[in-house]
Write a structure and sequence with these properties.
Blueprint: H1 3-12, H2 15-23, H3 27-50, H4 56-73, H5 83-101, H6 106-109, H7 120-126, H8 128-139, H9 142-153, H10 158-165, H11 169-186
């Protein structure tokens, strides 16, 4: 299921009426929030997930689950500026769980469609130099890896990274510095 299908699926399920009722909103308001966030953040969230999982289908599945969890959590998220950070946090947690359990997308394993062509993201991820960087990033502890990916891949400011990870800005800066030092060491640079 692609991300665009995921948002449609989320909005057609019966529990969306319950989510809207719990939030004290009309269903169209919930749909507008989810759709707006999908349009503004969906692609970046899939790109973020791709750093942590090996195939695009799995990344899209994680993002789909993140939107479902966001829809369910809307009544608890009073500050609407926190929704994007909440989504990023969910994607990071789902990716960590995905890798911890050693899950692999069944569609990726059983792909039989010979007309399938890799996306630009897939082609970029396959380049040798980028594979080395991704492998080095994956070798970092999550506390260092996540801030680096959010900062240098999604180009988020320190304050948004802090909000996403639930850390203070100073902790984010410290983790960025430590992570970059370790990353440089892993990639054969000097420190």
């Amino acid at each position: 299921m692609t991300c665009s299908v995921a948002v449609s699926w989320v909005m057609t399920t019966a529990w969306m009426d319950e989510v809207a009722a719990d939030a004290g909103w009309a269903r169209p308001e919930v749909e507008a929030v989810i759709t707006g966030l999908y349009v503004s953040e969906g692609t970046n969230l899939v790109r973020l997930a791709r750093f942590f999982v090996d195939d695009r289908d799995a990344a899209e599945d994680l993002v789909q689950e993140a939107f479902i969890r966001l829809a369910r959590a809307l009544p608890r998220i009073k500050d609407e500026t926190r929704r994007t950070a909440y989504l990023r946090s969910i994607v990071l947690n789902l990716a960590r769980d995905h890798n911890r359990r050693g899950l692999v997308s069944l569609r990726h394993q059983m792909r039989s469609d010979v007309s399938w062509a890799p996306t630009l993201d897939d082609e970029i991820a396959e380049r040798e130099d980028q594979r080395e960087v991704i492998a080095a990033l994956r070798a970092l502890p999550p506390g260092q890896r996540n801030p680096i990916v959010l900062r240098y891949y999604l180009d988020l400011p320190i304050t948004e990274i802090a909000a996403t990870l639930g850390l203070s800005p100073n902790t984010v800066k410290t983790q960025l510095k430590r992570g970059m030092t370790k990353l440089e060491r892993l990639l054969g640079g000097t420190t």
